[in-house]
Fold this protein.
Amino acid sequence: MEPEAPVVEGRRRRSRAEAEQLVREYEASGLNQEAFCRQQGLSLATLARYRKRQRQAAGEAAGAGRWLAVEVSRPGPVASNGAASGLAVVLACGRRIEIGRGFDAPTLVQLLELLERA
């Protein structure tokens, strides 16, 4: 009688929706990547690949039409001369850009180009 060959379990391929769900769960978990991957039976490389794919998809979606949703909040502080004091942009990732009156437009353009590459 011949010895039995070891059974090797194939890795299950996840759908894009399942991968996106795992990334959302990781981001909401508060765990570091190692702990989350250990808990889910997932390799660090796989989680990194899923996160990268999701960031790229989000970047492509945001850049596709170059239109962004804008939410207008309550009026901000008013300067002593009665004019508005500037503007603030708060991105979904938590980054905040505040611009005062008389800002340097070329510097703002450089900042936005840098952020788009990040």
Observations:
- The chain has a mean pLDDT of 76.
- The helical segments are 16-29, 33-40, 44-65, 105-117.
- The CA atoms of residues 19 and 27 lie 13 Å apart.
- The longest strand covers residues 86-90.
